[in-house]
Design a protein that fits this description.
By secondary structure, the protein is α/β, with parallel strands linked by helices. It has 10 helices and 17 strands. The strands form 5 sheets. It has a 7-stranded parallel β-sheet, sandwiched between helices. A 3-stranded antiparallel β-sheet has the order 1-3-2. Helix 8 packs parallel to helix 9. The protein is elongated. It starts with 8 loop residues before the first helix and ends in a 14-residue tail after the last strand.
């Protein structure tokens, strides 16, 4: 931000709000230095922005207002977003899977991209509640024929969501009796306070069952999911082993998440996914 004492109040507040959203929070003393204004001026600006409901004042500074999202976009609507990031994440996450593993993939466009990278991994057993993910493996088998080493896919039953996931008691009961080496989770939102969340209550319960049945949990999520909170939380960050994300995730967010789990930033030098045996 430019240090300009002659900024209009509206301009100054817009800069403050941008900084809060970009960094996930700021301190009053930082803003006074950056803007070249008094402590009292910054506090008045924060008061005004808090009254507008666009940030929340905390001791010594301010943080963004995080609203619980209840909107669940359909699969097609989400599939065109962050395509490059999803492809990088999928490629890195596939490196975590070794031959013969029993894995689970939740619903989502990132897990859908991951499924396409897993087609060449031999002897997989795949459990999924995603119609789209199951179609990836079934289509590959129809094209190439049933060959030795192809994936065996178990598709849970259940009620179909807008994102083409199967949820509800039937899916929950099927998952509860299974055990997998790795679970790859796509998420609607991820935050320190709310953990992993979704706007769909039934999907939240099905995801809880998936987490409970997995030896290791890997979240595949691009940077836009950070700070988003859905209506229902289904896991804490401490229940996750690894987050595979993209380079758009701010450094401060990486540091805070790394206090709870391992962060793999796809596409960055030196940040390649670990070998499958390390997971």
């Amino acid at each position: 931000m430019s240090e300009n004492q002659n900024l209009l109040a509206e301009q100054r507040r817009a800069l403050i709000l941008d900084e809060v959203r970009r960094r996930g929070g700021v301190r009053v003393n930082e803003l006074t230095r950056k803007l070249g204004v008094s402590d009292m001026t910054v506090r008045r600006d924060l008061d005004a922005l808090a009254r507008q409901g666009v940030l929340e004042k905390v001791h010594g500074g301010a943080v963004p207002v995080v609203e619980a999202s209840t909107h669940e976009p359909g699969f097609e609507a989400k599939s065109g977003l962050e395509l490059s990031a999803k492809e990088d994440i999928a490629r890195a996450a596939a490196g975590l899977v070794g031959p013969g593993a029993a894995i689970a993939l939740s619903g989502g466009t990132t897990t859908y991209a991951l499924a396409q990278h897993l087609l060449e991994v031999p002897d997989l057993t795949v459990v999924t509640n995603s119609v789209r993910v199951a179609d990836v493996f079934h289509s590959a088998q129809r094209t190439s024929g049933q060959r030795q080493g192809s994936a065996m896919v178990v598709l849970t039953g259940g009620v179909r969501t807008p994102s083409d996931s199967l949820v509800g008691p039937v899916a929950d009961q099927a998952i509860a009796s299974l055990h997998f080496d790795l679970l790859f989770l796509g998420v609607h939102g991820i935050s320190l306070e709310a953990g992993l969340s979704t706007p769909n209550l039934a999907e939240a319960e099905t995801n809880r069952r998936l987490v409970h049945s997995a030896r290791r949990v890997v979240v595949v999520a691009d940077h836009t999911k950070w700070g988003t909170v859905g209506l229902s939380s289904f896991a804490t960050l401490d229940q996750v082993d690894t987050l595979v994300t993209d380079a758009g995730l701010p450094a401060e967010a990486r540091a805070r998440i790394s206090e709870h789990l391992r962060v793999v930033v796809a596409g960055e030098p030196g940040e390649e996914a670990a070998e499958a045996t390390d997971i």
